[in-house]
Amino acid sequence: MRKNSVKNIRINEEVMRELSTIIRLELKDPRISPVTSVVSVEVAPDLKTCKAYISVLGDDEAAKKTLEGLKSSAGFIRRELAHRINLRNTPEITFVLDQSIAYAAKMSKLIDEVMENDRQL
Predict the structure, then answer these.
(1) Long-range interactions of 31-36: CB distance < 8 A, separation 24+
(2) Torsion sign, CA atoms 21, 22, 23, 29
(3) pLDDT (tens digit, 9 = 90+) per residue, 42-72?
(4) Where do the structural domains in the chain lie, given as residue ranges?
(5) 6-120 in CATH: which number?
(6) The model scores a pTM over 0.90
(7) What DSSP string describes 66-81?
């Protein structure tokens, strides 16, 4: 199975949907921020590993605690994922902090500042 095959894209979407539901509704860890979202998921073609890109609204400390909470809950999350999705193998999940939303907000702010300075000249 190629990395960008239709089957792999469907599996990525299904894992992302179920993972966000599990994080939002099932986890009771106080370290996990209530404003945590799953941005994207990359499941390996052999279904053994999975990278989940997580975005946390808040400061760096909240993001760090959320990542720690998710890593400690990885076994529970994997078991729940196995119950919800019928795959040959349930992937081992690695959580990665995604800074793209914060980076986009920062760049947008910088562009707005440049445009405002340009109008004043």
Answers:
(1) 31/65, 31/66, 31/68, 31/69, 32/65, 32/66, 32/69, 32/70, 32/73, 33/57, 33/58, 33/62, 33/63, 33/65, 33/66, 36/66, 36/70
(2) positive
(3) 999 999 999 999 998 888 898 999 999 999 9
(4) 6-120
(5) 3.30.300.20
(6) no
(7) HHHHHHHTHHHHHHHH
